[in-house]
Amino acid sequence: MLQYPTSKPDYHVALSLSLVLLGFNGKNIEVLLAKSINPEYEGQLFLPSQNLLTNEDFTAVAANMFSRLFGYNPEVLEQLKAFGNVSRARGGRVVNIAHYALVKTSDFKAEEWSKHGMHWCNIEKVPELAFDHNDIINFARERWERRVRRRPVGFDMLPPEFTIGQLIKLYEKALNIKIDKRNFRKKVFKTKLLEELGRKADGKSFGQQKGSQLFSFNKKAYDKMKGSEYPFQF
């Protein structure tokens, strides 16, 4: 009769954690990348990552990494899956527990992280990364697209004051589709998510057309919808 486990565990397998941080700059979806200073990968780009200690919790580490980069706790932070290809890292077996989070790109504390070569990159123009981090980004994009279709999580990526044009552009980029603007406006106003601010954009903020009406989102309606299955089909 078989008994489980059939052998002793291999305690020489290392664990790491990477964050796919997705932001919206007003025109494009971006992902945060860093430049390696490790001699084995020097100069190569990769996702913000951290090796894990035996007593560390995945989610707690991911949340701590996020707060160090942005100064607050994430609204959306999800574990993706384990990436454990045997040859994914040089020098030994490293299993990566990847997470993703949605952010406002303007919140990134760049002045504290410039020494790490951290910068935003258009998600459509991500170069070849170290390890299997391109695969991790692709998986995160698929997960995020499913979430965007079902819940209004995209609002976490908008500035506090935004235009309908920015909102439409966000969903077009997220879903890789062309949205019928009239139909979109009709549906989104029915949700009670938007609050008109009574003033117009001055055109100085990236992605905001001068003269366009400014909106903010209704936090109460947003929190209620975020936990439900609302079909954002545009």
Task: Report what the structure shows.
This protein is α+β, with helices and mostly antiparallel strands. The chain folds into two domains: 137 residues, Nucleoside Triphosphate Pyrophosphohydrolase, CATH 3.90.79.10; 74 residues, Winged helix-like DNA-binding domain superfamily/Winged helix DNA-binding domain (Arc Repressor Mutant, subunit A, Orthogonal Bundle), CATH 1.10.10.10. 28% of the residues lie in helices and 25% in strands. The strands form two sheets. Strands 1, 2, 3, 4, 5, 6 and 7 form a seven-stranded mixed β-sheet that branches. Strands 8-10-9 form a three-stranded antiparallel β-sheet. The N and C termini lie far apart (56 Å).
Please sum up the structure shown.
The protein has 234 residues and is α+β, with helices and mostly antiparallel strands. It has helices at residues 58-70, 110-113, 133-150, 164-175, 181-190, 219-226, and strands at residues 14-24, 29-35, 45-46, 49-51, 77-83, 94-103, 119-122, 162-163, 194-200, 213-217.
Task: Based on the coordinates given, report the CATH architecture of the largest domain.
Answer: Alpha-Beta Complex
What is the element string, with H for helices and E for strands?
EEEEHEEHEHEHHEEH
Examine the coordinates and then state which fold CATH places here, giving the name of the CATH topology of the largest domain: Nucleoside Triphosphate Pyrophosphohydrolase
CATH class of the largest domain: Alpha Beta
Residues in helices, as a percent range: 25-40%
Count of DSSP H/I helices: 6
Distance between the termini: 56 Å
Shape: elongated
Mean pLDDT: 86
